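Final report, Chapter 2: Outcomes

The project's central promise was a pipeline that accepts a single protein chain and returns its three-dimensional structure in a standardized token representation, suitable for archiving and comparison. That pipeline is now operational. To close this chapter, we reproduce one record exactly as it appears in the project archive, with the input sequence first and the structure output second.
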Amino acid sequence: MPVVTRTLIVLAAVLLIAGAIPISAQDSGGARQQQPAASVASGELVKIDTSAKTIVVKTESEPEMQFTYTDATKVTGAEKGVAGLATMTGSSLTIHYTKKGQENVATEIAVQPKKS
């Protein structure tokens, strides 16, 4: 194989690789931007609607905050998961959530033990 042909093949390979680098960098940056930031709220459980999958909590900063939950929402400190919260009105909760449009979607709900 002549030197000129080999040089052109190597040059073409380098240009292909160099062209792909900015594309992959943009893809990874775009994926990071789409993940919503996680937030935390603490307060007193006001009510829970298991059919609508919503929880209302009274916090110090706001009179009431509403959260939706899914089957994937992790619940600690309550028997039977989210269903167990139905009997725990007045309990202190810490909710980790993300914003999805206008909704606060709970990813984790931690029930603090009641103080005697």
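Archive annotation: The CA atoms of residues 41 and 72 lie 19 Å apart.
This record, like all others produced under the grant, will remain available to the consortium after the project formally closes.
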